[in-house]
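Final report, Chapter 2: Outcomes

The project's central promise was a pipeline that accepts a single protein chain and returns its three-dimensional structure in a standardized token representation, suitable for archiving and comparison. That pipeline is now operational. To close this chapter, we reproduce one record exactly as it appears in the project archive, with the input sequence first and the structure output second.
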Amino acid sequence: MKVIVNGEARELPEGASVAEVVATVTTAASGVAAALNDEVVRRSEWDATTVRDADRLEVLTAVQGG
């Protein structure tokens, strides 16, 4: 299935979870947020939330600096 991740088309296996997709984008253990089709997905729901064909997932990583 094709999914848009951070603005780029990606081919993913059927039934992929938000957690699996986030793991392909970043290795950060904390400071990461995910929004599926413009709705924030709580980290506690990442494993149970599946991504479907044509979904849009934004993965954001907090960066410290000044």
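Archive annotation: Residues 18-25 form the longest helix (8 residues).
This record, like all others produced under the grant, will remain available to the consortium after the project formally closes.
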